[in-house]
Amino acid sequence: MSDDQPPSRHSPQKSWVEKISHLLSGGEPHDLEDLLETLREAKDKHLLDSDALTMIEGVLEVSHLRVRDIMIPRAQMVVVPREAKLEEISEIVVDACHSRYPVIEGDRSNVVGVLLSKDLLTHVLQNKTSTLVGQIMRPACIVPESKRLNILLKELRTTGNHMAIVVDEYGQTSGLVTIEDLLEQIVGEIEDEHDEHEDEGYIVKRNEHEFIVKALTPIEEFDEYFSTQLTTDEYDTIGGFVMSQLEHMPKKGESLVVEHLRFEIIKADNRRVHLIKLKLAK
After folding, report:
1. What is the value of pTM for the model shown?
2. Within 10 Å of residue 95's Cβ, how many Cβ atoms?
3. Does 237 lie in the same domain as 167?
4. Which pLDDT tens digit goes with each residue over 168-180?
5. Domain limits at 269?
6. Is there a domain that residue 10 lies in?
7. Neighbours of 266 (CB within 10 A)
8. Domain CBS: where (predicted)?
């Protein structure tokens, strides 16, 4: 057969990694960093688009990250007491707008179950607001801080759980992680029905004292809107300002107080911050 003829369709197919490596004439990758570098070069050569590269990087990182790397710390969890009546927790639920809440007994280190908002709503509609949280809570999924994210994701998908309570080596609660947190490590930010839409601008006013601010909001626009003076040459966006103040990549749930401004990270992955809740001191 002539060397100029196309290969038979029955010939062994090269993997996509081999094809990319061959096209880049750099040989096959020898470790993870080599593979990532190859993929980034493939993007530069338009063999991959940005979204595909981000997802591939996310998949590779998830297999190396552990629960402790992305969990929401115990101090920042929105919790409800086991002995509280449903009518007593309504303000907490309305303000947080979560679908699940850790149920504690005593203090935050002792999570004894999970309250689902749909269970709460069912009882409220039936005028059973005197029911105790402990009577309708569900069992909590407990995982150690050291569990790898790829393993946890598989377990959550298998069991149907959407939230896991993270415990330390002594069995005390150290935080929580949701299936959304895990998926966002792969695909980036996931918007739900409570997230602000892209076409609503950089800053969305919820009430006189609370705002949702996109991390990419230009710092000059932020200053003009809130009559502040945060602008410097060190950063261009409000997300950059928050990162410079915290001196690390913020995680979902972290907060920062600067004068009369309280910043809370409500959307972030291991690469960047997406959304910030801003509260003004009353």
Report:
1. 0.59
2. 10
3. no
4. 988 999 999 999 8
5. 199-280
6. no
7. 18
8. 71-130, 136-196
